[in-house]
Amino acid sequence: QCSTGGRLFPCVLLGLLTVMAALDASHLRTRRSVQGNQNSWSSTGSGSAWGSGDNFSGSTGSWGSSDRAPKNWGHSDADPRHEGAAASDGATPLSAELRATFALLLVTAVCLHADQNLAAPNLSAIAVDFEMTPLQKDTRLGGMVQFGFFLIGGAVSLVVGPATDQVDRVTLLSLVVLSGSVPSLLMSLFTPASKAGFFYFFLARVCTGIAIGGSFPVLFSLSADIFPASRRGFVSACISAATNIGAAVGGMMAGMVGPRLGWRVPFRIVAVPGIICAILVRILLEDPRVAKRAKQDKEASAVNNPAFSAWMGGEDAAPAGHVRIEELDFTKFKRILDIRSNMLIFMQSFPGCIPISCICTFLADYLAVEQGMNVQSSTAITAVFGVSSLCFAVSGGLFGQRLYAKRKEQLPVLMSTGTALATLPFLILVNAPRSAVTSEAGRPTALAFLLALLGGCGAVTGPNIRAILMNINDSEVRGTVFSAFTLFDDLGKGLGPSIIVAATAVLGRRAAYTWAFLMWFVSSSILFQLRNTLSSDAAGGSSLLPPKKL
User: C-alpha distances in angstroms, 169 versus 164, 284, 289, 316?
Assistant: First the structure.
């Protein structure tokens, strides 16, 4: 029953949850703190708390069990930078609430990123609807839309990042998801089939880019505080895998549903679950940092009377949950570059994302037009690449987590090798003769599927990079770090299609795409340099913040 286009999307989502639940049971186990006397994941009646092991303040508020804290999902009072540093596996599984939190964050990431590749399989149909020439299809739908999608989204992340370090991240995540899903739904319902319709389509895609660009700082900052340091590699791998499978499932569903029901229908199918996830996030989750501040404020209110403070001429406190624009510390962007590992990670993002932009924007159309595949078959190739990326991301994140714990200098070697090896399958796929990758019936050959499968090996880099950023940066600057990373990432994804279109005009499609995939070698060489800096930065030698007092 999962073979039809209309039922494929929920079936793949169900499969994703099943896979994540299995991984959750085997890898997300109870962790114990450095002192060995406090359970840092499960809540017990003796004062042990999830996320409360070995923190420098000595607080032991329990997750979901304290009389003074609301029983919301994802509550943690710990200092996430230091917890779980020398953890060992326990026997008690995760609580049901934390599993539900983990699943909700994954489904939200899937639904948000499913919108990313909805246009790629149906570029020709969209161009016909908006009365575009073949050249305008490449320059406007391939270049201009992608430029606005990623560049404006990256610019917005510069504001979302510092805000993430100040405001309620659960509310911010909910608003970010709504900012992408609602315009996408309205566009699919009311966009006219004329030249003027492209303007509304462009605005909706920009809003989706803002949502995706703004989601990364919030998702990874929030996850880093909810989960202990010893499992950040696995959590990062799962979130990265969720974004990859969301993009792959969205593109696959659009390739199957679009030719039958119209290119607008996939946008509706994706937007509605996104809106539901945004509502569930706001209702069910709670920011651990906000919960901790509320607890401290409640304790302080017993001592400090606001009326007495005003009578004595004290300052009025800002309302809880609000932040002034002058309180956003934009100088953090300069300070995070003092860590060399941050700098190298940012540097590799631009060349590393150009091949990804080629795959997401042009590959399906190239396989259909130049290699003779039908739309469903070319979409299947990108879907196989997405599923392969999922497997490599999860397995690479788990293996990278072990490398980071034992031999940190070997983790950059893993990422560099995976990125370099991903180049070769796509070079063959683009330059192979039509008969080698397409059958006479217009379907992909076994070689085409094998090349797409092998091309996913580059996905080992994403979760490990994000885990590194989580571990070498303090909680107070993680939102800023991930907003900067998103900006550099989006520069490659946003400018990539425009650069490829310009190269296509000079070199032709095949040579331009070949050049684009060769950029992975540049990214690989930069990643290799991380082996000289990662160990010292992870040890805290380049910390931006003063040491905490015991």
Answer: 6, 13, 9, 24
**Residue from 47, 37, 51 nearest 94 by CA:** 51
Question: By three-state DSSP, how is residue 334 classified?
Answer: helix
**Beta pairing, strands 89-93 & 29-31:** antiparallel
State the DSSP code for 339. Answer: S
- Which class for 268: exposed (0-12), middle (13-18), buried (19 or more C-beta within 10 A)? middle
Q: Looking at the whole model, is its pTM more than 0.85?
A: no
CA dist 144 and 203 (Å) reads 11
- How does DSSP assign 456-476, residue by residue? GGGGGHHHHHHHHHHHHS-GG
Q: Give phi and psi for 237, each to the nearest 5.
A: -65, -40
Tokens at 358, concatenated: 């080629």
Q: Which of 493, 504, 492, 12 is nearest to 251 (CA)?
A: 12
- Give me 212's structure tokens: 């995706």
- Hey, is 92 helix, strand or coil? strand
pLDDT digits (tens, 9 = 90+) for 103-148: 899 999 999 889 888 887 888 889 888 888 877 887 888 778 877 7
Gap between the Cα atoms of 182 and 115, Å rounded: 12
| E-assigned strand segments in 32-94 | 89-93
CA distance 1 to 7: 7
Q: For the purposes of burial, counting CB atoms within 10 Å of the CB of 423, is it exposed (0-12), middle (13-18) or buried (19 or more)?
A: buried
Q: End-to-end CA distance of the chain, in Å? A: 59
CA angle 17, 161, 229 (to 5 degrees): 55
Query: Which parts of 359-477 fold into alpha helices (H)?
Result: 364-369, 375-406, 411-421, 423-431, 434-437, 446-455, 461-472
pLDDT (tens digit per residue) in 460-486: 998 899 889 888 888 777 777 887 887
Output the CA torsion sign for 409, 414, 419, 423: positive
Q: How far is CA 91 from the centre of its chain?
A: 30
